[in-house]
Amino acid sequence: MSALRPGDPRPEAESTSGAAGPGGRRRTSAPVPRFGHGSRVPGWDEAVDLTKDPALMPDPATTPVPPQLRETIEQAMAKYPDRRSAVIPALHAAQEVHGWCSPEAINQVAAVMQVTPGYLSSVATFYDMLETEPRPKHHDVYVCTNITCSLRGADELFEAVLTAAAGRQDVHVKSFECLGACDIAPMASVDGEYVGPLEPADAERIMADLEAGQPVLRDKQLRYRRCADPGVAQGAEEFSPPEAPRADTAGLRDEPDRPGPTAAIEVPTQEASSDGGGQSPGRPERS
Amino acid sequence: MKILFDGIDEPGLNTLEVYERRGGYRSLRQALAMSREDVLQSISDSGLRGRGGAGFRMGQKAGFLPHGDMDKYLVCNADESEPGTFKDRELMQKNPHQLVEGIIIACWAAEIDRAFIYIRGEYEQQAEILEVAIAEAEAAGYLGQNILGSPLSVSLVLHRGAGAYICGEETGLLDSLEGKRGNPRLKPPFPAIEGLYHGPTLINNVETLSTVPHIIRMGGAEYAKIGTETSTGTKVVSISGDVQRPGNYEIVLGTPSRQLIYDLAGGPAEGRQVKFWFPGGSSSPVLTQDDLDLPYDFDSMAKAGSMLGSGAIIVVDDSHTVLEVMHKLVKFYAHESCGKCVPCREGTNWTLKMVHRIQSGEATPMDLDIMAGVQTQIIGNCLCVLGDAMAMPVGSMVEKFREELEAEIESARERARAGELEHVIPLGVADEQAGPITVHDAAASARAVGG
Is A239 on the interface with B (CB under 8 A)? Predict the structure, then answer.
């Protein structure tokens, strides 16, 4: 999975899946970057601090942790019989705060959970959604480039999104493996909002919507899509955004600033009529 | 016949109020009035087979769990990552209480008091909806201590993953749920004996558990009358790819495949033909046009040399080459291999290199034999089936489309010789500094180092 950071090429060769683009071909024999003493491994000849305990846990008394983060992690730990189970939720929460799983973030989680930072790093590097490198904090655009989506033109879409996002520091574009929405192929997940089917021209609209801080491609959001099965959805038009606020099939509230996944969940007791704050959602204007 | 999808588009079905109005949680009351053994017997009688991929009978699996006073767990596998599969997404998004009810009934049948739903990290909306549904069920007394005055107590926790295909494999999922890297475990012991936190664990797919309330409602024997003798009930199939109406369809098992692809999903675009199709997600060996008349059920698919898997049909029409699909497929598995077992870790990456060789005009038809040979060395030699999941479809593609692949090899060689492939290599980030490299250079330098 290749992260887009223009003007920031990594010295090391990435894994093969980093190759992007239509008909991505082989990684050819580019000159291998060499480091000290001709080694391919950077920093191999730098001394390790042997006096340090390899399994050192940060001292909870001296490690400053944002109170909110501490509370989130402690709540997560309380949910499981074994506190280690909360590692992924905790790293997620820390990533929300720091933007990525930085050494500082990992240290804070380690201090609260009382596990070693090394253990947390091993977990953070395993999962695609935990970022182990600095990246812009704001918007994630994951473009699915797996089989179904690529059959429907995802590679062109990915190129278009890359082009549209070029130069924007607050948008993080990633080509992702199957996101589980092949019915709207080719699709993308913009800050967790599934949109599709997309055309390369939609890339500009995604950027415009992100810029304007409004729901992305409202007319193409998966949450408004009805079931394809004719037995349950007679005459349902595809991708019709709700005309007025309503309890949709998905039942999601129609607010542009819906709570993020880590926000406190409140059990909705109000009915559709009180939802949406009176905002009447229309199609986003095309420029 | 709609069972799982009955009224699925009804507004607000995700709320407890609407779900209860439609008869929700009545099956739970019914189940709690029955003895645990009767509930388990009913599930066994229904012949319900796991909808996640393996097709193992749920009743049998639940029966493997030891009895007695110990910590036992139920884990609902909602880490739906198999390319082409999106049925659980729709079920969780639109009818989360159906799943919650199924989990509670399964807990009753297998004497379990702690349950987890492991949902993939990308499903943020679905996770939020489930969180709300669980909170509603707790507030209504369907979860917690002494549910509806019965001896059953269940706590249900939603656990969000963080993006790893391998966590859909049951033991990888357990490791991930324990807060580790999602590496599969050696089996046996199977999770039913030693699973989560070393306790006996029942793992089932979202769709399987969502079916449970309906089995209780209808009675196991009655449910078994739907579908074929060995593949009972209905199945939600996710049809995608080159079809006009991609989406989820609930079908009775045993429906002819042609009917699914053409009548329900509309078939390929005008003037196009089905070239091949994956009957059960990208991990299943491909089938061709000749197999379109097979009934869509577990045994017919197995007999045809493929599998029903997760019920995800990916249709590829004749505007696409086998090689491009193979490339995407192999790239996916090479990226998702967790690296624990050598045959999978090396085999997937090695196969990817072979595909690149074909594309750049360096391969000979002999490479296809080598490629097929690699696949046979992966199958059955790993802890989990991720390697097999690549090896089986790739093997079947080489077998069924050998002529096309050979032609592809030849034409790529011709083009490379004529210098037409110069533009081919879109360079990755790492290579950008080095400037454009032609295939000629690549081939020459590969020879120079004895590659």
Answer: no
Q: Which residue of A has its CA nearest to B349?
A: A16
Chain A residues whose CB is inside 8 A of the B242 CB are: 151-152
Q: Are strands A139-144 and A171-176 parallel, antiparallel or unpaired?
A: parallel
Which is higher by pLDDT, B238 or B436? B238
Cα atoms in the 13 Å half-sphere on the side-chain side of B246: 28
Q: How many CB atoms lie within 10 A of CB B380?
A: 11
User: Does the distance separating the beta carbons of B426 and A21 come in below 8 Å?
Assistant: yes
CATH topology of domain B234-319: Ubiquitin-like (UB roll) (3.10.20)
Contact A121, A106 (CB under 8 A): yes
C-beta atoms of B86 and A18 within 8 A: no
CA angle B162, B164, B165 (to 5 degrees): 140
Tell me, what DSSP letter sits at residue A224? Answer: G
Look-up of token digits 């499903």: B123
pLDDT (tens digit, 9 = 90+) per residue, A127-171?
988 988 887 667 889 999 999 999 999 999 999 999 999 888 888
d(CA B419, CA B423): 9
ipTM computed for the complex: 0.85
What is the mean pLDDT of the segment spanning B260-286? Answer: 93
pTM value?
0.82
- pLDDT range class, residue A37, cuts 50, 70, 90: confident
Contact A185, A197 (CB under 8 A): yes
Same CATH topology for B234-319 and B323-448: the answer is no
Task: Phi first, then psi: give them for residue A120, nearest 5 degrees.
Answer: -65, -40
- Can you tell me the mean pLDDT for A172-198? 90
Cβ pair A250:B334 closer than 8 A: no
Choose the CATH number for A139-278 among 3.40.30.10, 2.60.40.1120, 3.40.1260.10, 3.90.180.10: 3.40.30.10
Task: Give the three-state DSSP class for B312.
Answer: strand
Tell me which H or E stretch contains B89: helix B87-94
Q: Does domain B16-223 have CATH number 3.40.50.11540?
A: yes
Among partner residues B11, B124, B357, which is closest to A261 by beta-carbon distance? B124
Residue carrying the six token digits 């998905």: A250
Correct CATH for B323-448 of 1.20.1440.230, 3.50.50.60, 1.25.40.10, 3.40.109.10: 1.20.1440.230
CATH topology of domain A53-135: Arc Repressor Mutant, subunit A (1.10.10)
In the stretch 379-438 of chain B, residues with CB closer than 8 A to chain A read 424-434, 437
Helix (H) and strand (E) counts for chain B? 18, 11
pLDDT at B429: 34
